[in-house]
């Protein structure tokens, strides 16, 4: 079963460019991606911590006020950060969970049972990953049920540029490897979004970044409560 993507596709990008060289390259790439994928895109530069929250609430209110059918919403958040928090232009912190709640099934009626995708380009700590030999296995857990109501937090996809506790990397001129890779895959590949994100993860895991003469590894983290396949193309 797939999500109905025949209606309006809406996107909000909030990006702190202050002391984040390369951010404009990411914004340009995202704008091209949203245009090609048929999204109505709004971009806000250099929000304060409070404005992060205010812009999400305005976005939610605008979505609920629409009279046409809304298919999905993308929210891109780019800033310096620590685990669970983003830093606004004013150096104050905002809780990511507060931002995520704005569009959940309780607070945004127009997006109830519809896909909500959050893309977060920010550090989640100070750790750096030098890489490890390949090892390990897969663990899959499946639970089936058929409720008459819908949980508050379903139909949501959180895509973080790095895993909890680790740094996210960004080139001064070319932008962040995460955003640039994600845009390239979303624009040029076809398939359900989780399959596309697996390709993003593969590319990032195979790449090697050099920071201060040291080789570094980085990969995104994907958290999904999607109930159906989501196709962007």
From TrEMBL:
Residues 146-233 form the Caspase family p10 domain. GO terms for biological process: cell differentiation; positive regulation of neuron apoptotic process; proteolysis. Keywords: Cytoplasm, Differentiation, Hydrolase, Nucleus, Protease, Thiol protease, Zymogen. It comes from the Eukaryota. The keyword Protease applies. One of its GO terms (cellular component) is nucleus. It is found in: Cytoplasm; Nucleus. Its main location: cytoplasm. This is Caspase-14.
């Amino acid at each position: 079963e797939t999500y109905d993507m025949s209606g309006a596709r809406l996107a909000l990008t909030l990006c702190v460019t202050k002391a984040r060289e390369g951010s404009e390259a990411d914004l340009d790439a995202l704008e091209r991606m949203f245009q090609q994928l048929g999204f109505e895109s709004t971009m806000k530069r250099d929000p304060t911590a409070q404005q992060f929250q205010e812009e999400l609430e305005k976005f939610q209110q605008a979505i609920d006020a629409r009279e046409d059918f809304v298919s999905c919403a993308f929210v891109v958040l780019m800033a310096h950060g620590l685990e669970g928090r983003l830093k606004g232009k004013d150096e104050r912190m905002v809780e990511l969970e507060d931002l995520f709640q704005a569009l959940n099934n309780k607070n945004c009626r127009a997006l109830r049972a519809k896909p909500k995708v959050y893309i977060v380009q920010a550090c989640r700590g100070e750790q750096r990953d030098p890489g490890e030999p390949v090892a390990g296995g897969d663990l899959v857990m499946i639970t089936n049920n058929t409720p008459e109501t819908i949980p508050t937090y379903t139909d949501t996809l959180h895509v973080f540029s790095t895993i909890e506790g680790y740094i996210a990397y960004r080139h001064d001129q070319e932008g962040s490897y995460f955003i640039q890779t994600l845009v390239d895959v979303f624009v040029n590949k076809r398939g359900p979004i989780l399959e596309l994100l697996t390709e993003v993860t593969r590319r990032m895991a195979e790449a090697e970044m050099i920071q201060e003469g040291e080789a570094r590894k980085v990969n995104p983290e994907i958290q999904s409560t999607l109930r159906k396949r989501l196709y962007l193309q």
